[in-house]
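**Protein fold record**
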Amino acid sequence: MREPAAGAARPTGEESKAVGEDPKLVKYFQRVTAELQRTRERLRELENPADDPVAVVGMGCRFGGGVGSPEELWELLAAERDVITGFPADRGWTEEQIYHPEPGTPGRSYVRHGAFLDDAADFDSEFFGISPREALSMDPQQRIALEVTWQALESAGIDPAGLRGSRTGVFLGLSNADYATAVREMPEDMLGQLSIGNAGSVTSGRLAYVFGLQGPVLTVDTACSSSLVGIHLAVQSLRAGECTLALAGGVTVLSSPLLFIDYARQRALAPDGRCKPFSMAADGTAWGEGAGMLVLEKLSDARRNHHPVLALLRGSAINSDGTSSGLTAPNGTAQQQVIADALASAGLSPADVDAVEAHGTGTALGDPIEAQALLAGYGRHRGDRPPLLIGAVKSNLAHTQAAAGVAGVVKMVLAMRHSTLPKTLNIGTATPPRVDWAQGGIELLTSAVPWPRDGRPRRAGVSAFGVGGTNAHVILEDPEPDPDTEPGDRAVPPLLAWTLSGRTEQALSAQAAALHEYLDRARPDLLDLSWSLATTRAHLPHRAVVFGSRPADLAAGLTALSTGRNDTKSATAVVSGTAVRNGTTAFVYPHECTPAVVRALATQYAQAEPFAEHLSACAATLAELVGWSLTDVLRGDPDVPPLDRPDVLAPAALAVLTGVTRTWCASGVRPAALAGHGSGRLAASWAVGWLSLSSALRIAAGCPAGVEPDVVDVPPPPRPVCRCCAGTPAVGCGTVRPRTTTARCRLPNPAWLPASCGPTVIDCWSCSVGTPRARPPRCPTVPPCWPCRRRRRAR
């Protein structure tokens, strides 16, 4: 550190102490330090782009048993349940048609259980701008991929509509396409749509088309490893700069029973429809349905864009079995090699990994080969580290094929977030004798195990192996907390707004019901929830806002929206309506504000420079007019008049409301219309430029006798006018439109009209201080202002 030059003044102890105790300076130095740190990190990332890992910033999923989100998946895992059921009733095939207990029966399956999506046939085509006719010809896998992608993007705090034209890539795993085979009759004019709607390449292209994505888009089919291979390719694309954001995942829906019949002929299915990974009782795989989608972004971009970093993809690798004992038989050497390659790409040793989500299909052939590869790749290199813990989510969800890899990734990310490795079901006795578990270094998750950080990042591997021989392995890492997201002191406003939206009115009601259920289950922080609903969700045409300050307010408002009954006794207000395309912003000023609201607004905006400057100007003007200090009144000092006194509250409220207006305008929010009711018309008159600040404050404080307020020069026409006074501003009519070109004040909402313009001077300003018109026109809808009525009677 450089010494000050000779003769330079040094700060005294008192000055240093004053600087250190100044909260504004402390906050400034903290912000500058954080920005310098981020700048250094960004420079380091630009110099070494390979060192910038890829982050998982969002997740979405759907699986059998009604699992509709990652949170619901974790509830299932924590409860140690599976989702195995009988054949679904909405596919056109029944147990009587398909099931036969005798294996090898032609055209029949000896298995009648699996993990099926409850609502695979449901699809809101209008939401995605797809006609019902086109939706009918689409493979359900395309429909579910759209829905899960929307969910994943919103979980990342990204408005899906905001990605249009972006370099976002899509890497979608898809290995089953049997919807067309289940269609028995199709109108001839829909045959073209059927071929497009069932093409595997179109499934990923559909995502790019609907969301307007212009990065690399491809459908990956490597069978059971499809989604994990897609994740690997997405990571490579992000690191190569081909895309700035990537969607990676997979989807499987069984539209026909062909897969059950085919694998039953090979005796490859578990009779009870349950996978038993690495178990002595393993007797075949089990089929399931599901979809999962990850939103991936380089860590530096995720931090800069303030997206949540759920996990890091530290390394990944893919390879092929090559020649093995059979075309579809696994190759243990290749599996061991793909693990080594993934560790090398991550720059890690086997001892750095705590757990592996195994492929674990529950077959007598595949599981022992995979166990031997894990022992060779991880178990024999642990040193003094605890044993590697092995689990498989197929014991809960069955084998979801193209979605299997991403299901394992979602599970392990959730396990990191909850610091627990969940139990793997149906293991019983571990697989002997071909696997020598006594070698040590590996243990099966026969019960849930805590997963603490213990001073180092938690890391997990995820494996997936395709029936065609394509193997994939990825390494996940628990990220360090973002310093910018650490909880700290924050001012909670006295009134919160919770926003909801839907494509239709029914969808809005459903959103309200879903949020109510989430409120009861998760008990979220209300301020965080308000911010997230407003800034991280798409704003659809049908909208509603619930205002309140307590959980009871939000719950009552959501109940009113979901049931259609406007019974919100505990809520401050519920406002709903339909957004107008290309709508503009309006500022509405209330008739009166309570002292608590005035003080809360002053506190909330106190740090904003435009607000502070405006309040100082108001304080100087009011000091000359009334003799008391506005700043002292807002602070509640004992030697000044109380704020609840009407002659004090009116000018103070005006000063605060106009200060808030100036702050919003300085931030770039400009109103296309202003409205003021009662005393709020003073603030509207100042905002539109018809009254100077001093004139508005004089009126609010009680203008002294003989003092005529000055009117600010109004720009030349076209400008809004009052219909009862041709050519004068429409302050008294309740609505002001600063950019309208009409010659009359067109009132958008009759509910805003006052019963009478009233006798106050501000109701029709030009009539009071300007030259009266000789024959003012009649107002067919708005009662004329008081001076106009007086002149009319005089005539």
Summary: Confidence is low (pLDDT under 50) at residues 1-19, 705-795. Residues 343 and 349 are 6 Å apart (CA to CA).
